[in-house]
């Protein structure tokens, strides 16, 4: 069966599933394989559970005309996604970056959805499986698609572009993240820059944060560039200090107004400005942009503000790297609160730079006054410091429960592997 024929089946059964535990009747099951799983073993089970077809790359003992044998299931999934994408003529906006890409994606989706039927990446399904699955969720009624792309090594973004075929793109930033895979900040910029390379070669449009000089260099030669930032851009705005949440004073691009977001932290300013820029570019009325941004509530432990008794907790435990950790600490230090507690988990995927980057965070912490500092796991364990230390989030949670904190602001942040949300016993959805 070729891709065109498979696509005809997909149009008849337009729901793709890769996990038999989530299977519903009429799905097409793709039997993916990984280091610790083999979907081929569950193909017959998927059919028995109601799957219309199962795509496999290992022959089954019991023949069934609903089994579609291919040479490689993952490659077939990506080829099907590309073929489906080629049938669509709507704008496809791709988003990548070291920090803020999921929040930026969610804000842009909220803004565009006021005016267009907009499909977007669910959660952070932004990898070699999540990206094609996102494309295959885009239905014929779509007016826009927003696709998040994550990467931890070179040529990964370039690979996603080959079947996403983006018409527009944003690189939120290129900082210290996944240094182990990229080999340093220059490698990060080269890897994230593969999105702009694609746009440059295909007459696309780039949205860039004008405050970041390196994005001007990375986007040079792209047919159309839309700039946003604090100055010298089509869309400009500044962060206005608020008691808890970020307020953005828009100074150019749409009618001057203050947008009262439900996001914590001035580091979210570029994310908000990106959403304004994209909305304005696609002719979303300014009032709709404002309402959408003010209505958006963060979830999944990203810049969430939680009130517990008399305490205010900033839960930003979805991920962490040196750039985002530094921004969160500096923002928290500026917060007006009678007492502040830091609870920070280790940062992952930093390679040879890991110990030095953790030391830099310890040095930064020492520049401010805190009620308590708790460091958890990772390479914090390798370093000497005067702060409370635990091996894991469970131990930190035990400590936290024993504290009689009142009128205290608490920042909880760490890499996904540290599961720092456990400090509050808050379950997080796991995406693989």
CATH topology heading of the largest domain = UDP-N-acetylmuramoyl-L-alanine:D-glutamate ligase
- How many separate domains make up the residues? 3
Shape: globular
What is the residue-averaged pLDDT? Answer: 94
Rg calculated over all Cα atoms: 23 Å
Question: Which percent band covers the strand fraction?
Answer: 15-25%
* Helix content estimate: 25-40%
Number of strands: 19
Query: Taking strands numbered 1, 2, ... along the chain, how are they ordered across the largest sheet?
Result: 6-7-5-8-9-10-11-12-13
- SS field, number of helical segments: 15
CATH architecture of the largest domain: 3-Layer(aba) Sandwich
Give me a quick take on this structure:
With 432 residues, the chain is of the alpha/beta class. It is built from 15 helices and 19 strands. The protein has three domains: 68 residues, MurE/MurF, N-terminal domain (Udp-n-acetylmuramoylalanyl-d-glutamate--2,6- Diaminopimelate Ligase, Chain: A, domain 1), CATH 3.40.1390.10; 208 residues, 3-Layer(aba) Sandwich (UDP-N-acetylmuramoyl-L-alanine:D-glutamate ligase); 121 residues, Alpha-Beta Complex (Protein-Tyrosine Phosphatase, Chain A), CATH 3.90.190.20.
